[in-house]
Amino acid sequence: MPIDRMDEIEKDSGAGALAKSLGLWQLTAIGVGGIIGVGIFSLAGLVAAGDADNPGVGPAVLIAFLIAGLASAAAAVSYAEFAGMIPRAGSAYTYGYVALGEIIGWFIGWDLLLEYIAIVAVVAIGISGYLEAFLDGFGLSLPTSITASAEEGGIVNIPAIIICLLVTFILSRGTKAFGRFELVAVAIKIVLILFIIGLGVFYIDAANYDPFMPAGFGPVLTGAATVFFAVFGYDAMSTAAEEAEDGKQHMPKAIILSLVIAMTLYVAATLVLTGMQNYQDIDPTAGFASAFTSVGLPVIATIISVFAVLSILTVMLTFLLGVTRVWFSMSRDGLLPPWFAKVDRGGTPQRVTWIAGVASALLAGVFPIRAVADLTNIGILSAFIVVCAAVILFRYTRPDTPRTFRLPFMPVVPAFGVLASLFLIWQLPWETWARFGVWLLIGFAIYFAYGRRHSLLNPDSPHHRAPPTRTT
Q1: pLDDT-wise least confident of 48-57, 239-248, 262-271, 341-350
Q2: How far is CA 346 from CA 45, 258, 338, 441, in A?
Q3: Is the pTM above the cut of 0.90?
């Protein structure tokens, strides 16, 4: 029953506690850091200009972001209600575990382990590409053998590996140091975006907005599924709830604040991007750099490229934090070996931090970006479906549980989140579904072989056995 799971999750399993060192604005910075990055610097240009498989949506990229943001907002308030009740590490895993049961919790936790590690790898490969472009500007170049995967004509992507390990080192220093770094980096990121918007608005040509939706509404919906990658960073931020100084009060505020700040900047930035340059001429990989180059400001374009790397780096930090906290939480609940849940003297789970960091480095080093990017959106959308469904169920099964935040218009808002997420998942290719299915089958095999027998919810679990008494 839900009450048993709620009571169990409030107990200290003895595996160790995470240090509480994050305030409201540090939490908000982590959320904004996870949301703003790849979406605004890469995906906006890609969706607007199109590629070989998808026509460009032009200025209607704004609509694509709004659709994705609306679906995300329904999930965000669901996360906020849960975070106010259960400020524990694990995010969607923990919420599903408490409200819908252990097997659903396992499903979403196992899903998030892959999604977050893949996102870190994808972003590292993207930063590696920016580094190559930056060096090319000075007449320098690195050999393909150490900057691309075998499928791309190289051997291993060394820069991507180094970037993953660097981010892992920063996170391993503890959440206090990480929170300070994230706060500064996100502040720089917001200043950069405001600078782009403030300067770019003077170079807008209204003729570039015509036609506003050149390919019709269908590609806009597909674009919304693509840019959804850019609007769910608060999900990873909520995995740090247990490290918040006042999780029940600060987490709901931080989730909503981070999404509002990010969506406001996205709307303004997409208007500037498609107003400065005709959508057909936008560089899909570096939209804003190409826009400023097109109006005769190449120096500004170079500055944007340099700071874009820093902006995208904060995304890696946020999602690496997410995977380590989900892994830690699943291990503490007995679903994975307790060895992973050990923390150091500073309250940091060093073991899972370095394992996840090395795993992302391996993915980034030997696989092409598309191979590791395919699974990200389907996994996060699945998490959103679970959380939105769970908040409805929990409102009726535990109506008296204290809530520091109550989402409005229950159950309409979370039900909309479920339907919107299902709709966006439907836009993804079948190959993504197949790979996702294989990963889940592996996960369920581990659950039935280990997790179910060792779970804290299992009265016969070894965790509940008393240690043998010594005889003299």
Answers
A1: 239-248
A2: 42, 27, 18, 36
A3: no
